[in-house]
Every structure is written in structure tokens, then in C-alpha cells.
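We store sequence with structure; for instance:
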Amino acid sequence: MPCDLPRFENPPALPHTDVVEILDGVLGGGAGEDAAAEALVGIALDDDDREFIEYCCLEVGTRAVPGSSLLGLAGLCLGHTARRFGYLSDRAVELAEALAARAGADPSDVDGRALDGLDDIRWYLRDQVEQQPSGDVRPVDDGV
């Protein structure tokens, strides 16, 4: 007997202008959080411009209202970006750390996907970041 469960497919990476328009609309107080989530996941998984992905995650992670599901998703998407590119800017690492700390302190503020994203960053960027005894991550000072 065939199984009729819904089939999940990753959202496609949209053109940058569309992503910015969708995110700006939601972050400006408009509706469309589902579309914003799809746009963010789509670029995190399939866009070739790491800086653009980071920019979008930084915008969402710093502008979304407390309790928005987009906050945890921004942290998770930074983890996907670390996995795909093997690098994140210091600002992106700091945001992922801050979102994960908020998730650990109050999951109704930022959901646990931010913790998953930070775990990915620790794993995939272990040469770029060092884990402190507190569990925080910091960029490695390589003397450059």
C-alpha cells in the first residue's frame, strides 16, 4: 500500500532582489513570515553568494521581533552556510552565538534551531573558531 505522506522539498534560492523585498516586508511589520522563512532557507541551501546569505541572516537576526520563528531560523541558516562554505564572518559567528544564548535562556524568545546552527558552526568551522570553556565560540586569532 503506497504511503500518502506529504513530500518535503527544499525551497529554491530566489533572486536576491526578491529575497530582500520579502525579508524587508516581514521585518518592517508586514505579514509573510512563511515566505520569509522559505526565502532564507532557499538561499542558505542553494545560493552561491556567502556574503549575501550572511547579510540576510544578520538582518533577520538583528531586526526580527522577539519570539519570531525567523530568529532561530537565522541561526540555523548560518550553520548551513558554515557547512557549505567552510567560513563565516566574525559578525555572523557572533550573531549565531548571541541567538543560541537567547535560545538557551528563553526558547519562547528564540527557538532551539539557533542552538543547532551554533553546533554546526562549531563543527564545520572548528579551524576558524575556538570553543571556550563556557561553550561560547570565538574567532581564532591566527596572528594575521
Summary: The two ends are 62 Å apart (CA to CA). Helices lie at 16-27, 33-46, 50-63, 69-85, 90-105, 113-124. Strands lie at 129-131, 137-139.
